[in-house]
Amino acid sequence: MQRAIELEYKGQILRGMEHMPERKEGERVPAVILYHGFTGTKLEPHRIFLKICLALEGMGIACFRFDFLGSGESDGNFEEMTVSGEIAEAGAILDLIKGDPRVDPERVTLLGMSLGGLVASVLAGERAQDVHKLVLLAPAGEMYLLIKDMVDGVLAVPDLQVYDFNGNLIGRPFAEDLKTLNVFERSKGYQGDVMIVHGTKDPTVPYQVSLAYQAQSYEGRALVHLIEDADHTFNKTLWEQDVIGKICDFLR
């Protein structure tokens, strides 16, 4: 069953969807929380987040996917968004799901795509005891280095408060915050099961970033699946099916 849900966070509303499998009265089921990427939404391209949720719901796993503030249908403006802010919002969502009486609080998995993968990895690193498993799809762990010229260019202009990124206004606080993040170090605290999926022809976040996660954050413990020729958001049905299949196998 799919229905719309809301979470109030610091006076604003995060809007999302929940997918709850059939369950016996009083039964607690495992759950997955999905975090979307930069300029993305709770659906993500070609509705891949919805398709992941439907597949997992069919396995008896509840799924929850929200728009971060300033994205999708949630309150706020995109120019107010920072990565640290999204990490905090992700934590509030985790609190909500772990407190849901239908959910087994010992079996809550985080799944993040792109910037959402960065968010999920840091949150898991800092709240390891609250996370059962971790799934990262093309995680943008080195986001500052990937857009360094743009960030440094913004910060070099003292009076520039917002800038236009493909129709999304980005605030100066985003650039200031991003430059301070040590993602791989903050992700190290998570010692549970990790799976990373990345396309070998990702033009946005090179797959070598996932290999760096493996080496620097997870010391070789993570399962890394490279999908040959796939792009950043797995924009072919064959790639999408591969991703969903790997997620289902990992969480089965």
UniProtKB/TrEMBL annotation:
Any GO MF annotation of the entry: carboxylic ester hydrolase activity
Swiss-Prot/TrEMBL keywords: Hydrolase
InterPro entries with a match to the protein in the record: AB_hydrolase_1, AB_hydrolase_Est10, AB_hydrolase_fold
Keyword Hydrolase: yes
Chain ranges of the AB hydrolase-1 domain: 30-166
Keyword Hydrolase in annotation: yes
Protein name as annotated: Alpha/beta hydrolase
Source organism of this protein record: Tumebacillus avium
